[in-house]
Amino acid sequence: MTGFKQTLCTLLFTMVTGVVVAQNNTNSPYTRYGYGDLSDQSFGNSKAMGGIAFGLRDGAQINPLNPASYTAIDSLTCLFEGGVSLQNMNISYNGVKLNAKNSSFDYLAMQFRLRPWLAMSIGLLPFSNVGYDVSDTRTTKDGLTYARNFTGNGSLYQMYGGLGVKIKKNLSLGVNASYFWGDIDRLQTMFYPGMSSNVYSYRKKTGLSVSDYKLDFGLQYTMALGKDRSMTVGAVYSPKHELNGDQKIVTTLSTESEVGTVTDKSAGITMELPNFFGAGVTYKYNGHFIVGIDYSLQQWSKVKNKITTDDAALRKDFEATYDLCDRSKISLGGEYIPDPSGRSYFGHIKYRLGAYYTTPYYKVDGKKATQEYGVTAGLGLPVPRSRSILSIGAQFVHIKAKESNLLSENIFRISVGLTFNERWFFKRRVE
C-alpha cells in the first residue's frame, strides 16, 4: 500500500506540474491557424519510435492511440504513466533567426484489467496548443504606415476513459470516450503612430471556448508467424463530430481624444472535428526487436467551420483562421532489446529509433504552408528492483516552408516518461 501511495502522489504531482507548464509550450507563428499545433498523443515508447502506435501491442506500457491494445496487459498488472517534454525551437525567416525554449505536459494515464477478456484505461491528454507573438508593419495606399501585432495562447485537452475487449484469442476491439474541452484566446492590435486624432488604434480580442465529447475506435489482430515471430495489424477510426463551442469577440477603437469605444459581442459558430483513419503493422521477433509502420489521415478539408455574423471583416478573419486541409502522416520505427531473458541490466535496456513525415492541416493565404519531417531515438531504462520503465526520447523536427515568404522551424525536443508497473490483484501467501 505504501508503494501505491507513493505512485499516486507522484502521478498527481506530474499532472499538476504538467497542467501548469502546458500554458506556454509553443512559440510557433503557425499556431495562429486552426486549433494550433496538434499534440503528439503517443506515449514514451511510441514517441521514440517515430510515433508508431496502431499496431503496437505491449503489456508493459499504455497505448491510448489504439484502445484495442489495452487487452495486452496481464491479470496481475496495473500501469501508471506520466510524461513531460522540453524543447528548443529555432525559427528562421529571410535571414532572421529567433530562438525559443518551452516545456510541456504530454500525458497522464493508468491501465488495468477488469476481466480476462476486458481491460480499461483512463487518462489526460493535450489535443492542441496555441502560443505565438508576431508583429509587422504595413503601408496603406494613402502612404499611412501602421504597426500590427498578433498574439495568441490556449490549449485543448481530452480526458478519456477506454475499454479493450478480447473477442478471440488474437483479436481485440477497443473504444475511448473522451471529454473534450479548452479555451483559445487571440488578440490583434493595430496602431497608427504620430497621426492626428481622427486616426484610431484598433484592438480585437477573440475568445474560443469548447466543451464536448470525442469517440475513438480501435482494432488489433495478431498472427503467429512461427514459434518466435508474430505480426500485429491495427486500425483506428474517429468519426467526424460537431463541437459545442462559442466565440466571444471584443473590439476597441481608440483615438487620441477618446480612450475607446468598445463593442462586445458573442458570435454563433459551427466547428467540427474531422474523420480520422489510421492503420499500422508491427513485426515482433523473439522478444528481441519490434519494427512497425503507421499511416493516418485526418479529413480536415471536410469539416464545417462557420461563423454567423453580419460583420464582413469578422467573417473574413474567421474563414482565414480556419481554412483547413487534409493532414496525413506516415511513421516508421523499431525497438531492440539485446538480452530480454538475461540477468545483465544492459541486456534489458530498450533501444528505440524512428522517423516520420506529415503535412499540415492549416492553410496560409489559401495554400498549404509547410511540410514536417522528424527523426526520433530513445531508451527504455528498467528501474532497478521493480518492473517500472523510464523512457527517455529525443526528437529532431524540421518544419519546411513551401513558399519563400514563409518561415521555417527546427525543433529539438527531449521527452521523459515514467511507467509504474504495479503488481495488483494477487493474494499474498503467509506461512
Provide a descriptive summary of the structure in words.
With 431 residues, the protein is mainly beta. The protein has one domain (2-423): Porin. Helix content is 8%, strand content 58%. It is built from 3 helices and 21 strands. The strands form 2 sheets. The protein has a 14-stranded antiparallel β-barrel. A two-stranded antiparallel sheet has the order 17-18. It is elongated.
Number of helices: 3
Count up the domains: 1
Low-pLDDT sequence parts: 18-23
Outline the biggest β-sheet: 14 strands, antiparallel, barrel
Secondary-structure element series: HEHEEEEEEEEEEEEEHEEEEEEE
- Count of individual beta strands: 21
Class from secondary-structure proportions: mainly beta
Main-sheet strand order equals: 2-3-4-5-6-7-8-12-13-15-16-19-20-21
Report the span from N to C terminus. 21 Å
Question: What is the helical fraction, as a range of percent?
Answer: under 10%
Mean pLDDT: 86
Q: Nearest-angstrom radius of gyration? A: 24 Å
Shape category: elongated
Strand content: over 45%
CATH top level? Mainly Beta
CATH topology: Porin
CATH architecture label: Beta Barrel
Membrane topology: Multi-pass membrane protein
GO cellular component, one term: cell outer membrane
Keywords: Cell outer membrane, Membrane, Signal, Transmembrane, Transmembrane beta strand
Main location: membrane
